[in-house]
Amino acid sequence: MAQYYTSKINQLAGHNGEEVTIAGWLQKSRSGGKVLFLVIRDGSGFCQCIVEKAMVSGELFSELKHLGQESSLCITGQVRKDERSVGGYEILVSEAKVFCDTKDYPITPKPHGVEFLMANRHLHLRSQRQWALNRVRHTVIAAIRDFFNTNDFILIDTPIFTTAAGEGEQNLFNVDYFGETACLSQTGQLYLECGALSHGRVYCFGPTFRAEKSKTRRHLTEFWMVEPEVAFITLDELMELAEDFVCSIIKAVLENNISDLELLGSDIESLRKIKKPFYRLTYSEAVDILTGPKAAKYLEDELISLSSSLEDAENKLAELTETQSQAKKQWQKDKAAAEIIEINSAIAELKRRIENNPKHARLAAGFQWGKDLGGSDETIISMMHDRPVFVTHYPKDVKAFYMKSNESDAGVVDNFDMLAPAGFGEIIGGSMREDSYEMLLERINEKGYNPQDYSWYLDLRKYGSVPHGGFGLGVERTIAWLTGEKHIRQCIAFPRLMDKIEI
Ligand code: ATP
Ligand code: MG
Ligand code: MG
Ligand code: MG
């Protein structure tokens, strides 16, 4: 028997009929008297391993029978095809070696609330959902780098300690920097513009910090953002770049993570249908939609359909509860219990949406031109679209000082937000940058900032200024959208939130 391993579970198809050794962790086990069913996770996948009493020593059979979840072990056995098995193959065990016999794994079998799971994040990362989410994240990040690296972009790393607030003062993290106050980067953009005027096409990709004081499902205090910045570009070209970029991420995830997306319950068919061009709306058109009859009708229809889904889910819950109480075998009870947890969380989500629906309707009807679109407004606009939608030309007063004023309407800026469809909301914010020295200085003064603090940034408008623009995409938001994950905190291994920093 090999010391550690010779094969990976995701490669078993190439070893059908052969003897292999795999090393991993016990995810679950079930005993059928003279046979044990062990599901093992080895990092590459999950596989059912069959231990027949007649095929191993009595001692080993007993050891394996009493192993707790998350015990680590290495097994050797013959691979055989079995459509019913996770992954389509199983292993008939002939030998095994246990590294750590885990007892009382704290996460299972009891169902837990999210607080417990977050406090035990070091272990919760091993759950099947988290495993799949981390794999999708891996693909998204690789696709991001591939896209820019193969489209003539140069990576410029921008600093994390800065003195320049890129996105307003209200959510800055201040830190003591040898007696001076510095802050953690909210965006790399201002620095990246220097890179764009040097290389033409550049991007930065790193952690971004914002002291988000409200608890939402879409905001972390530390998140990963990728930001391209391009010299000699127009707003339309920038949006085309964003479209191509998002399509390339979707393509990579569909190519590499179908089984993860299935496990996560993501809407794969809708993702497959996403193609260029995405929808384009001006901010003013978005306001007309929000305050007009179309949004009201949409929300009414949504309420009817949510209520009927809730009724179905409650019936299903009653059925499962009955099944659970009638079940004779422990594994049947466990299966029903797991389904009950899922249906309860679906019910909670439906109730949340039903509760929010009238709130959305009220907010939408009362929306006024000039306000920034909030989470609810974005939800409604994006709910009404089956592909991402660009909302462009926001009122100047609600946007950052560096956004370029529109030539024919000075009240709005040449910017866009990209909203992911089906109610998800913003994943990208981008704009053309003010490239006139005088206009930029005026904007800095209007906002009450000190021009001295932006002297190097203003210099970019003095020395070889060009039309340029860029955007930022939030990695965790994108993952939450693609996977259908309800809360952004699951889309990064160690989330940082207002009330969470320890693990
Ligand atoms: P929102 O309106 O949702 O607060 P924003 O307009 O403040 O987002 P931008 O400054 O445009 O965000 O940043 C670009 C992108 O970074 C956003 O479109 C989003 O994908 C992501 N992002 C922004 N803030 C956060 C956050 N606190 N947590 C996770 N991702 C974020
Ligand atoms: Mg924000
Ligand atoms: Mg926004
Ligand atoms: Mg934005």
TrEMBL record:
InterPro entries: Aa-tRNA-synt_II (IPR004364), aa-tRNA-synth_II (IPR006195), aa-tRNA-synth_II/BPL/LPL (IPR045864), Asp/Asn-tRNA-synth_IIb (IPR002312), NA-bd_OB-fold (IPR012340), NA-bd_OB_tRNA (IPR004365). Keywords: Aminoacyl-tRNA synthetase, ATP-binding, Coiled coil, Ligase, Nucleotide-binding, Protein biosynthesis. One of its GO terms (biological process) is asparaginyl-tRNA aminoacylation. Residues 135-495 form the Aminoacyl-transfer RNA synthetases class-II family profile domain. GO terms for molecular function: asparagine-tRNA ligase activity; ATP binding; nucleic acid binding. It holds the Pfam family tRNA-synt_2. It is an enzyme of class 6 (ligase). Residues 296-353 form a coiled coil. It comes from the Bacteria. Its EC number is 6.1.1.22. This is Asparagine--tRNA ligase. It comes from Limihaloglobus sulfuriphilus. The lineage of its organism: Bacteria, Pseudomonadati, Planctomycetota, Phycisphaerae, Sedimentisphaerales.
